[in-house]
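TICKET: design request
STATUS: open
ATTACHED STRUCTURE:
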């Protein structure tokens, strides 16, 4: 009997502990019915996410919430940009506009609450919650700021006599307008209407076609190798719709400067190295003022000095062309410079050294993609973290998949 009494006391104590744990867990989790009661659809936008860990479920819930916005933003931006595409002909320009729209369609939602739902058979669930009224207030404030920015840029255009100096204000208006239009679309998703614009931006953006159709370039780069670079620059500008003339007196823009190539003395006896250096001045012929300056250099090696010189000039030419297009092409994605670093991560499969090299290889591939899309290489820095900073546990296949990732932060700011 004494044994049974002690056994019964142990069971009561264990049961009490279990009940305490259950109450504690429930205080941190919600059932679907509880979440619906606490976060009504009239005020909140909610998305669910599932995973084999709390972290992965929370991550997926936030991703699902962002997805609600992104497809609608993309469609809306393309619809609103159609008039701009029609005014500026060319397949490459149309593709660039679509690429920029894709960038602006992706959003990182701030002010989002994440709550865990009750798990079922090892499957975790979470909900991401956005307060519609709080989001509306923040987005309306952002709209006001973008309207002010657009008006400021427009006033700067009115003060410039040279059409060359219109380019950058018009470019900034284009990107401010895209951000503003993205916010208008987000407001419509949560059931609110944006106030009208104070300025018809599409009329201003139509100035781009006028600028490009009436701007003539004269290019003069000293030395024999400079002629090669001048031809490459002329081809790039011509492909963007600009006119290249052979008489400096007819030009609106003068690109002048020099390119030099010099062999380098290196310890490596099997390879020969050369450095190509360029200094270019871009002059506004209407005012005779230098408005831009480009200085770049590239070092390359090969089996012969001649081959090393050729490689260095060719790579330098590609860099200079991107720099010039970044100045004169309003639709270059380089304007949306990624704020570094681009960070690569891995799971924990393999050695520390292997994973470090793997993460570095991944970020190099991402950087190369951005460069191909028009970003200037100097605006992008990379960093490999190996397996040091997992997003979630590496104990499951799903967790390891989430940890194999590349992260970066754009200059674009969203609520």
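STATUS: resolved
RESOLUTION: sequence designed for all positions
ATTACHED SEQUENCE:
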């Amino acid at each position: 009997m004494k044994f049974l009494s002690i056994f019964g006391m142990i069971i009561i104590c264990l049961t009490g502990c279990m009940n305490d744990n259950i109450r504690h867990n429930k205080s941190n989790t919600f059932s679907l019915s509880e979440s619906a009661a606490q976060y009504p659809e009239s005020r909140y936008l909610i998305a669910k996410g599932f995973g084999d860990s709390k972290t992965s479920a929370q991550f997926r819930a936030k991703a699902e919430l962002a997805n609600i916005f992104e497809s609608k933003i993309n469609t809306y931006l393309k619809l609103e940009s159609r008039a701009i595409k029609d005014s500026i002909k060319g397949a490459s320009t149309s593709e660039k506009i679509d690429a920029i729209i894709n960038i602006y369609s992706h959003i990182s939602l701030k002010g989002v609450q994440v709550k865990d739902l009750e798990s079922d058979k090892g499957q975790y669930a979470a909900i991401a919650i956005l307060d519609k009224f709080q989001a509306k207030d923040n987005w309306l404030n952002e709209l006001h700021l973008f309207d002010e920015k657009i008006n400021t840029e427009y006033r700067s255009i009115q003060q410039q006599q040279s059409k060359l100096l219109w380019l950058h204000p018009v470019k900034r208006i284009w990107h401010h307008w895209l951000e503003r239009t993205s916010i208008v679309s987000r407001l419509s998703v949560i059931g609110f209407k944006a106030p009208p614009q104070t300025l018809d931006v599409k009329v201003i953006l139509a100035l781009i076609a006028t600028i490009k159709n009436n701007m003539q370039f004269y290019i003069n780069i000293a030395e024999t190798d400079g002629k090669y670079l001048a031809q490459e620059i002329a081809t790039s500008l011509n492909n963007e719709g600009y006119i290249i003339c052979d008489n400096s007196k007819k030009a609106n823009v003068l690109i002048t400067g020099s390119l030099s190539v010099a062999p380098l003395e290196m310890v490596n006896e099997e390879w020969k190295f050369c450095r190509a250096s360029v200094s270019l001045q871009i002059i506004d012929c209407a005012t005779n003022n230098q408005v831009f300056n480009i200085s770049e250099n590239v070092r390359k090696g090969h089996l012969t000095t001649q081959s090393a010189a050729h490689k260095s000039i060719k790579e330098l030419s590609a860099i200079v062309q991107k720099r010039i297009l970044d100045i004169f092409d309003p639709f270059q994605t380089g304007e949306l410079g990624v704020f570094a670093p681009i960070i690569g991560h891995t799971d924990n499969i393999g050695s520390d050294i292997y994973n470090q090299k793997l993460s570095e290889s991944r970020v190099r591939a991402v950087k190369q993609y951005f460069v191909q899309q028009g970003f200037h290489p100097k605006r992008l820095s990379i960093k490999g973290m190996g397996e040091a900073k997992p997003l979630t546990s590496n104990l499951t296949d799903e967790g390891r998949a989430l940890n194999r990732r590349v992260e970066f932060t754009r200059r674009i700011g969203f609520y």
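CLOSING REMARK: The longest strand covers residues 289-302. The radius of gyration is 29 Å.
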